[in-house]
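REQUEST
  id: r-88c1
  op: predict_structure
  target: CBS domain-containing protein
  payload:
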Amino acid sequence: MIRTAPVSEIMSKNIIALTREDNLERAEKLFKRHKIRHIPVVQDETVIGMLSYSDLLRISFSEVSDDENNIDSVVFDMFTIEQVMSKNVTSIGSNTSIKEAAEILAKQEFHALPVVDQGILIGIITTTDLLNYFVNQY
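RESPONSE
  id: r-88c1
  status: 200
  body:
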């Protein structure tokens, strides 16, 4: 295992992102279509927040209804992306070591880090990316 390997070697470069103008219904569709759990929220190419699938579940009452699509739509229309997203986002640069990214995620209460170079979102690294990396080392 290379201790100084940069996150650029394992980060997801095919970025799925939202803007504050998007709605939560679109976010849910992206989560499900791409089978992801975290979506950066951007203004132009700058990260202004992070939305997790858990954030949506917190405001959704679909678990208690037979007509989950109707309930989701009603609940999702009550909130904006900006109201639900995490705003104080920790980000890292593409040259940050995989070890350092793992340390940040191990100490924090989130599971994804946007990768930003010169203020522009270029990727995302998740705990799943890290686990897959460590599994492949053995």
